[in-house]
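Continuing the series of single-chain predictions for the mutant panel. This is the parent chain; the variants come on the following pages.
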Amino acid sequence: SKPQKDLLNRIPMLKIALQDIAIKQLRTETHKRIFTEKEWLRVTLSSIGDAVVTTDVNSNITFMNPVAEEITGYTLDEAIGRPISYIMNIYNELNLQPAEIPVSRVLKEGFVIGLANHTGLITKSGDRKSIADSAAPIRDDSGTIIGVVMVFRDITQTKIFEEQMARLDKLNVVGQMAAGIAHEI
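Parent structure:
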């Protein structure tokens, strides 16, 4: 009968239409899932107590959390897409010589690199801060390096406290020696 033939002729078109609908739903769900995971990661990195800066394989900044903004004095909008050296003006606090930013070494060598002790950072406003940090490669699922994550913190107050404690210890020793000498006299 004619209605059955019409129906049979429409089956391939219906099948294609259903496939299109299924593909669109799958794409929508995938995009939502990717967006949700990216947002979860962004919120996580933004709420970490240490400064976090990520770069691509060209050492250009792709992300900075609020702590990194606070320590360096640069905003994400100012820094994104710029070389890491734009915000990380680091130096050796002992000899005041420029220090290597570990991002390039991580890209070359492929493993976690920590900054040497006595590393300072000159902020956007010109302030000097003592920092402790490390940088690690970011790899894709095949193991290829696709960027670097640098994590650092401001240890200026800790160093000042340690220096004051060392000075107090010396004064304590001097006081004990003076008391010992006074006792002998």
